[in-house]
């Protein structure tokens, strides 16, 4: 059996099905290394020789001991955030299969044509605990950003507040930042985070820390961006650390500062315009692609480091524009319509009906797809389109009579037994 599998894997055109979007052909170890090294931003990394784990671990422990003593924190807090037996972060990459055209065989692409997303796993690293603490402090600040989307469906409720008169003769467009995390300055991120934090510090859960403590923690975490790959040591010389928990909120706040210093200074745009962003994916309305590009050029110009670059996706007349897991269109009368969306490269893989997972789990997965389809649909026509996408997905994964999962879940009464077809014993819990 092993020899048969090996023989199949050594064939040139064999493809392995993945749980992402496409078929990913196996590759050699040397090609995998070349993909990982060449495709991350070329000027963002440099090789190092001397190991630095012990130094970083010692600096983290010394800093936290100083902060704990200065702020008179309980002794168990000092022990809780001490780092011991740590390892340096490790880099890996994810292939951006959604960037490959639908009619392209991915196995025919050269290494230079494969686009990847570099990820640095900081689990168990010297800075992990301090990074987690900083993340807990600054993440609530995101709710104060005017453009930030708390969830991926917030724009649907915002569309209900947009008048048809405003949306008429406009097109919905999207724009995303190229490699946001590795193109924002660490110093600029820290400055913007602290400026925002000081405004709301008295209303935040700061765990007894002061802004100066947060500044020292962010400096230590973000400026020690070392990682290993293929038994070699590298340093990220620019941008926030991919994979570090504090990087996303820092990058989001930095980009929000650029927006605040550009498009949000226009009173007319503030009162009549629409603009929202989920991390690095932004959306708005414009009359032409040039107008949309000019708007995002203003945001890019507000970046003193001149590294933020936008890619604008503007629809053809009468077409829907994909945004996150929805498609958005503007009718001639100004009515905004939305419906469920799945990428053309999506392989349509989900939890299979023949999986050995509990029946309730599979039912919940199917029901959640239908709930999302309803949530993202603005009308009956759009709803039927969305439901058909879910029908096809579930049928492809072995589910029969798929619309049965579309039924609303019955509310259980207090003390009622939980029914599970995979359970041999039923119990009643009273509260």
What would you say this structure looks like, in words?
The structure is a single chain. With 431 residues, this protein is an alpha+beta fold. The protein contains 14 helices and 14 strands. A hairpin with a 2-residue loop joins strand 12 (321-323) and strand 13.
Give the strand order, joined by hyphens, for the main sheet: 9-10-6-11
For the largest beta-sheet, the strand count, sense and barrel status come to: 4 strands, antiparallel
List unreliable stretches of 5+ residues: 9-23, 414-431
Considering DSSP H and I runs of 4 or more, what fraction of the residues is helical?
Answer: 25-40%
Give the averaged pLDDT, no decimals: 84
User: How would the global form be characterised?
Assistant: globular
The helix-strand sequence is HEEHEHHEEHHHEHHEEHHEEHEEEEHH
| Strand coverage percent | 5-15%
How many beta-strand runs? 14
Helix- and strand-based class?
Answer: alpha+beta
**How far is it from the N-terminal to the C-terminal residue, by CA?**
54 Å
Give the C-alpha Rg: 25 Å
The total count of helices amounts to: 14
Which terms summarize this structure?
431 residues; 4-stranded antiparallel sheet; 14 helices; disordered C terminus
């Amino acid at each position: 059996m092993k020899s048969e599998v090996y023989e199949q894997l050594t064939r040139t055109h064999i493809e392995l099905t993945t749980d992402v979007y496409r078929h990913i052909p196996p590759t050699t170890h040397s090609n995998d290394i070349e993909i990982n090294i060449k495709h991350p931003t070329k000027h963002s990394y440099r090789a190092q020789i001397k190991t630095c784990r012990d130094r970083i671990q010692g600096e983290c422990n010394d800093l936290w001991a100083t902060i704990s003593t200065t702020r008179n924190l309980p002794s168990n807090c000092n022990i809780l955030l001490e780092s011991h037996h740590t390892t340096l972060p490790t880099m890996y990459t994810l292939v951006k299969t959604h960037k490959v055209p639908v009619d392209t065989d991915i196995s025919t692409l050269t290494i230079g044509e494969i686009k990847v997303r570099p990820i640095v796993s900081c689990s168990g690293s010297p800075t992990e605990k301090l990074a987690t603490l900083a993340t807990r402090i600054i993440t609530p600040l995101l709710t104060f950003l005017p453009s930030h989307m708390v969830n991926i469906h917030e724009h649907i409720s915002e569309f209900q507040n947009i008048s048809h008169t405003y949306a008429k003769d406009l097109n919905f467009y999207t724009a995303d930042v190229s490699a946001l995390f590795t193109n924002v300055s660490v110093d600029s991120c820290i400055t913007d985070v602290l400026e925002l934090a000081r405004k709301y510090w008295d209303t935040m859960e700061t765990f007894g820390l002061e802004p100066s403590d947060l500044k020292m923690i962010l400096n230590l975490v973000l400026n020690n961006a070392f990682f290993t790959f293929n038994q070699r040591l590298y340093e990220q010389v620019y941008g926030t650390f991919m994979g570090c928990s504090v990087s996303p909120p820092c990058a989001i706040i930095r980009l929000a500062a650029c927006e605040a210093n550009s498009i949000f200074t226009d009173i007319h745009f503030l009162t009549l315009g629409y603009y929202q962003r989920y991390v690095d994916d932004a959306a708005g309305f414009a009359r032409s692609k040039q107008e949309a590009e000019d708007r995002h050029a203003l945001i890019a110009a507000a970046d003193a480091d001149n590294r933020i670059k936008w890619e604008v996706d503007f629809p053809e007349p009468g077409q829907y524009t994909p945004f996150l897991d929805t498609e958005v269109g503007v009718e001639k009368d100004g009515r905004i319509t939305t419906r469920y969306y799945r990428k053309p490269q999506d392989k349509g893989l989900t939890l299979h009906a023949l999986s050995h997972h509990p029946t309730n789990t599979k039912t919940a997965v199917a029901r959640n797809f239908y709930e999302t389809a309803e949530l993202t649909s603005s009308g009956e026509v759009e709803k039927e389109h969305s439901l058909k996408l879910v029908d096809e997905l579930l049928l492809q994964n072995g589910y029969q009579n798929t619309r049965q999962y579309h039924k609303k879940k019955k509310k259980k009464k207090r003390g009622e037994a939980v029914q599970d077809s995979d359970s041999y014993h039923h119990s009643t819990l009273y509260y």
